């Protein structure tokens, strides 16, 4: 079984609809992240959470909200979807690196979202 | 200027060839560097970290040049299965370990 799962894997929705993307992990990591990927752009950080009580905005949080329901679950919501939110969305987890070193991020399989 | 810049490619090489990619980064405070691999429509996966002294993992060699602010990835004896997009990733300590992803370099290995 995959360590990081995302549902749904594909979703087509209409402008103005509310949509939730879910992420679950069995890696036991405290840190979780949501990214979006657009053609020609690098992955952009939307929100990140270092534990269930610690949620922070990333570089492109406008139009999105998140919920950390448990250590293993981190959901991303689009309250009122718009076409320019059409993208590939990835959830990721990580564990703090040793002695403050870098932590490796493990990505889920992605959710392809299309907003019409 | 983008924080992390890569040549998008594609690099078309025959099996068995050696190919190298470079990546430049703008933040001189960057402390950690990585190469991730991403197959088409799949999630990125860590290929290797890049250490100051350079490091090798099988057919893959990564180098870091802090003075010129670039990192490189060398792939020897290319395999068909190496065809993918290679993402240069830089970590800068800005309150937390934020990762900045390049847009990727696409590699196509042909028979």
Outline the structure in words:
The complex is a heterodimer of chains A (116) and B (111). Chain A has strands at 4-7, 10-13, 19-25, 31-37, 44-51, 54-57, 64-70, 73-78, 87-94, 105-107, 111-115. Chain A has no helices and eleven strands. Chain A is globular. The mean pLDDT of chain B is 92. Chain B has strands spanning 4-6, 11-14, 19-25, 32-38, 44-50, 55-57, 60-65, 70-75, 84-93, 97-101, 105-110. By secondary structure, chain B is mainly beta. In chain B, 0% of the residues lie in helices and 58% in strands.
The low-confidence runs of chain B, each spanning 5 or more residues with pLDDT under 50, are none
Give the termini distance of chain B in whole angstroms: 37 Å
Kindly provide the radius of gyration of chain A, computed on alpha-carbon positions and rounded to a whole number of angstroms. 14 Å
Distance, first to last CA of chain A = 33 Å
> Approximately what portion of the residues of chain A adopt beta-strand conformation?
over 45%
Instruction: Give helix and strand order of chain A, one letter per element, not per position.
Output: EEEEEEEEEEE
SS element count, helices of chain B: 0
The main sheet of chain A comes to: 7 strands, mixed
Q: Structural class, from helix and strand content of chain B?
A: mainly beta
Give the topology string of chain B: H per helix, E per strand. Answer: EEEEEEEEEEE
With helices defined by DSSP (H or I, 4 residues minimum), what is the helix count of chain A?
0
Estimate the mean pLDDT confidence of chain B. 92
Structural class designation of chain A: mainly beta
Helix content of chain B: under 10%
Shape of chain A: globular
Helix-residue proportion of chain A: under 10%
Please summarize the sheet with the most strands of chain B. Answer: 6 strands, mixed
Low-pLDDT residue intervals, each spanning 5 or more residues of chain A: none
Radius of gyration of chain B: 14 Å
